[in-house]
Design brief:
Largest sheet: 7 strands, mixed
Helix content: 40-55%
Order of helices and strands: HHHHHEEHEHEHEEHHEHEE
Strand order of the largest sheet: 5-4-3-6-7-9-8
Radius of gyration: 21 Å
Number of strands: 9
């Protein structure tokens, strides 16, 4: 089978189950062969080996079940970086990059003001895409001096998620940086010591019934990373609006932020206003909501007063 024949077969197999059969097929072939888009175009007459044909067929079959391409290839680009992913973690989404951008703006402002090590907590870290993108950007974009890179603490209740975050720390070539980092398994701040200058979080915020509906298409994302109506230990919060975890997270974050500290959180477009209200009730000031790429309310920020 040639690459051109494989592309045709993949499109046919995925035509009834995928919204983007051609793109999915190309992604699978590129990842499997180690090619880029240009290679795929100009090497279409290349013949797949028997092992490659078998691997291609298996991956196309997985995609027909609804399993996302990122879980099939084991990679997902986020904030211009290549992250390792598995069904143990939520797949990084482009809208979450807005949270990273806002965090980097705050880090730049704080560093220029205090010229000291900043402490950052990435709560519900999952793959580590938020905290690690912040750390790598601080280094590559020279937001802070190398000797003043922020101390980043990544927290998740899932041991498997933390393992993936650790793998990404190494995968992104961050292990050699002169910076302290911590990976802590904890139900929110239960096992997390100290205070922070900035807390970033993309917590579960989807109502239980909607979270279950999302998983009916076979996408296999971890329900623990989606369902906002359960405690992170799996017990119910008795909420039905996706805000159960956020109601616990916000007051805990307030206690763990130092003077003039900042909480930046992703939340659903349907509960961003209520999340901002919860921040105000907890004592945060200067709250603000930022829109995602589609113009929907997505990221909420609040500050601890001096």
């Amino acid at each position: 089978m040639t690459v051109a024949e494989a592309k045709k077969l993949g499109r046919e197999k995925l035509s009834s189950t995928s919204p983007s059969p051609a793109l999915d097929t190309d992604c699978i072939l590129q990842d499997m062969l180690g090619w880029n888009k240009t290679d795929l175009l100009f090497k279409s007459d290349s013949v797949l080996t028997p092992d490659e044909e078998k691997s291609f067929a298996e991956k196309i079959s997985l995609r027909t079940t609804g399993l996302p391409i990122a879980y099939i290839t084991g990679h997902r680009e986020f904030y211009g970086m290549d992250f390792l992913v598995s069904p143990d973690v939520l797949i990084p989404k482009p809208d979450t990059e807005i949270l990273v951008e806002k965090a980097l703006e705050i880090i730049g402002e704080k560093y220029r003001a205090v010229k000291r090590l900043l402490t950052i907590c990435d709560m519900c870290t999952g793959s580590g895409c938020i905290g690690l993108s912040i750390l790598k950007s601080c280094f590559t974009d020279k937001i802070t001096l190398e000797q003043h890179l922020p101390i980043v603490t990544m927290v998740d209740i899932s041991g498997k998620a933390l393992d993936m975050a650790k793998r990404n720390f190494i995968h992104l070539n961050l292990s050699g940086l002169p910076v302290s980092h911590h990976f802590i398994r904890s139900n929110l701040f239960e096992n997390v010591p100290g205070k922070f200058d900035i807390i970033v979080s993309n917590p579960p915020y989807i109502p239980s019934n909607e979270a279950m509906e999302l998983l009916r298409d076979g996408r296999s994302e971890p329900i623990l990373a989606l369902d906002g109506d359960v405690n992170l230990d799996g017990s119910p919060t008795h909420a039905e609006d996706g805000l159960g975890i956020i109601r616990n997270l916000i007051p805990q974050a307030k206690k763990r932020l130092g003077e003039n500290g900042v909480l930046i959180m992703e939340t659903g477009e349907y509960n961003a206003d209520e999340t901002e209200n919860l921040m105000c009730l907890a004592g945060f000031t200067d709250t603000e909501i930022f829109l995602d790429l589609e113009g929907q309310k997505r990221v909420v920020m609040g500050k601890v007063p001096r």
